[in-house]
TrEMBL record:
<feature type="domain" description="DUF5753">
    <location>
        <begin position="38"/>
        <end position="203"/>
    </location>
</feature>
<dbReference type="InterPro" id="IPR043917">
    <property type="entry name" value="DUF5753"/>
</dbReference>
<dbReference type="Pfam" id="PF19054">
    <property type="entry name" value="DUF5753"/>
</dbReference>
<protein>
    <recommendedName>
        <fullName>DUF5753 domain-containing protein</fullName>
    </recommendedName>
</protein>
Amino acid sequence: MQQDRPSGESTYTEWRHKVRDVLTPLQNSLVQRFQETRLFRIYSSTLVPGLLQTEGYAAAVLRAVVAELQEELPFDDSAEAARARVERSRVIHEPERRFVLLVEEAVLYHQLGNMQTMADQLNYLLTANDLPSISLGVIPTARERAHLPQETFHVYDDGLVSVELVSAEVKITQAPEVALYLKAFEQLNSMAVYGAEARALILKALEGLR
């Protein structure tokens, strides 16, 4: 299969092609996209979104990627890639940007790295939740759902959606398809809790590590 497979104005790129060399260039390849975006809307059902990952958590995530793609990668650069991921995430401190991030509550319990790594990550979520540019929503597990969990996706402003599949990343720019993801985001957002309620769920997960 080719690296990019156009479908109208959508692009399908297999992960094994995106990380054909090493992981760090993939992290750096997103810097321009981040710089051009003013409104980030991110939903994750599996991991803490990259923009809010600590270096330790990011390294654990990327080590898992290396383990899955070990036959594709010439060497393990997960530590360097984690530093690059954290560096590009400094965009959350830049003015005139807004970040709306939704995670399923289960994300808070998926342990990446050791217990200290998870504790540091959860504590960082508490800190990030206080930033004026960030709205962090948590969709509680113990609540009747009106909408099903979805694959992880990112919406950059109103013009680009990036969907993370097991085998590939799909980039969508067609307006009708983008609109579907915007609708899905709002539906998921309607089930999320914010502020003190989100903080309580993060603290509950943190307490579970002790």
